[in-house]
Write a structure and sequence with these properties.
The chain has one domain (1-255). It has 260 residues and is an all-alpha fold. It has helices at residues 2-24, 29-55, 63-98, 107-110, 112-139, 154-182, 185-201, 213-236, 241-259.
Length: 260
């Protein structure tokens, strides 16, 4: 039973991100490099926030202190990675032009939203991995959650929150990069404030050891914010209802041709 729970929660948390990686990243080596590099910058943010947490001894027991500064450092390193990518644009374009046999796509640089999406996905995957890996290790057993009176929803809620943060980081990456490209700093504020808000909402979960309502108090608002930021990222990337209808129509026509 514990093994089934482990695989179920793992697929909830990483099934959709793995599908995104499989269909949009894995075929292009340059995108894989950007994905790994963005994950490395998230690790640097984690390292700096950990050093600060370790240095400020009186506040080590205050979870909110480490959380707030972790969010700040993550956004600062997201900005550093954005600056690095923009500095590297010309060199990467030269690589694209000289290595056509490697199937590198020039449109990745003319359409800057692609790199923003890849970097956000890398940020989200490494963030999700670090947030749930210890929970998954405990999930294998022996025993299962709830035996000592704890909530039975802990593992499932953790998996859904992890998935939410992976998508949020992906959307935040698109919005954040666009904001700096177009000097629309209100979008930067939206990213930072929403990141801080969703992260602080997870503090409610520490009060949910025997009561489940606090889980919903963090999970539902987090998904509402995820859908709102997803809609904003979709609009920023040039998406529209007309585009969706056209894509569905094209897909239906292609399917009918294959059947014929």
């Amino acid at each position: 039973m514990t093994l089934m729970e482990f695989f179920g929660c793992t697929l909830i948390a990483f099934g959709p991100p793995f599908a995104l990686f499989l269909f949009t990243v894995v075929r292009d080596p340059l995108r894989i490099i950007v994905l790994i590099a963005s994950g490395f910058f998230w690790l640097l943010a984690l390292l700096v926030s950990s050093i600060l947490w370790f240095a400020v001894v009186p506040l080590r027991e205050q979870l909110a202190f480490g959380l707030v500064f972790s969010v700040i450092f993550q956004e600062l390193f997201r900005l550093l990675f954005y600056k690095l990518l923009r500095k590297a644009d010309e060199g990467l374009k030269m690589v694209t032009q000289t290595e056509q046999d490697m199937h590198l796509e020039p449109k990745d640089f003319t359409n800057k939203h692609i790199m923003a999406y890849i970097s956000g996905l890398g940020y989200g995957i490494i963030s999700g991995a670090f947030s749930i890996v210890n929970v998954l290790a405990d999930m294998v057993g022996p025993g299962t959650v709830g035996i000592q009176g704890d909530s039975h929803f802990f593992f499932v809620v953790t998996a859904f929150l992890t998935l939410c943060f992976v998508f949020l980081h992906t959307f935040w990456g698109i919005i954040f990069f666009h904001a700096w490209d177009k000097s629309k700093f209100q979008y930067v504020a939206i990213v930072v404030v929403s990141h801080m808000l969703v992260s602080c909402l997870t503090l409610l979960n520490q009060r949910s050891e025997t009561h489940t309502p606090a889980y919903w108090g963090s999970l539902v608002p987090a998904y509402v914010i995820m859908f709102l930021t997803g809609g904003l990222a979709f609009k920023i990337a040039g998406g529209s209802i007309a585009n969706i209808k056209a894509a569905i129509t094209c897909s239906c026509k292609q399917t009918s041709y294959e059947i014929d």
